[in-house]
Amino acid sequence: MTLDISFSLNGAEVVVGVRPHQRLLDVLRRTLGMTGTKEGCGEGECGACTVLVDGRVVNACLYPALEIEGRSVTTIEGLLGADHQLSPLQESLVARGAIQCGFCSPGVILSAHALLDRNPNPSDAEIRDALVGNLCRCTGYVQIVEAVQEAADRLGSESDV
Ligand code: FES
Ligand code: FES
């Protein structure tokens, strides 16, 4: 049995049939093809499945799909600009070597994006705090924090012009 739900996905209205107890992660990846959202632990520990719901960071592996009715979901695919150009945040992560295997990167980027939306000028401690739910096995986090700081600086100077 499925129930139809409607919600906004990266700015476009979608209607999908979901089963009771189905996870948002599976609806995004399997039903809607948003494979940028990754599954790591599947139990709320690693942050690989991070998406934004109404602008707030959630773990899609723990989020019941039925509860997404009427809400707004942003996945990593939703951050690409026209012609698929990377956002300043994504560019900074690439430039700083903060993306290696890339498995954690969608979740890291979405958590950092949410941070910069609510706090355009975060301290290093605030960046680390915002990313505490996103585990990375590759970079050791220094480059990630530097990249987010660089993106904040870039976005700040762009808004000054
Ligand atoms: S897959 Fe969701 S937190 Fe790890
Ligand atoms: S870049 Fe590999 S897990 Fe973060």
In short, what is this structure?
The chain is an alpha+beta fold. It is 35% helix and 16% strand.
Task: Report what the structure shows.
- The protein is of the alpha+beta class.
- Helices cover 35% and strands 16% of the residues.
- The chain folds into two domains: 75 residues, Beta-grasp domain (Ubiquitin-like (UB roll)), CATH 3.10.20; 79 residues, DNA polymerase, domain 1, CATH 1.10.150.120.
- It has a five-stranded mixed sheet with strand order 2-1-5-3-4, with helices on both faces.
- Strand 1 and strand 2 form a beta hairpin.
- Helix 2 packs across helix 5.
- The longest helix is centred in the C-terminal third of the chain and has 19 residues.
- The mean pLDDT is 95.
- Bound molecules: FE2/S2 (inorganic) cluster (FES) (2 copies).
- The site of one FE2/S2 (inorganic) cluster has 11 residues, from loops.
- One FE2/S2 (inorganic) cluster (FES) binds next to loops.
Question: Any chance you could write out the topology, listing elements then pairs?
Answer:
Layout: E1 3-9, E2 12-18, H1 24-31, E3 50-53, E4 56-59, E5 72-74, H2 88-95, H3 105-118, H4 124-130, H5 142-160
Parallel strand pairs: 1-5
Antiparallel strand pairs: 1-2, 3-4, 3-5
Helix pairs in contact: 2-5
Residues 99-105, 136-139 line the site of one FE2/S2 (inorganic) cluster (FES).
List keywords for this structure.
binds FE2/S2 (inorganic) cluster; five-stranded mixed β-sheet; 161 residues; DNA polymerase, domain 1
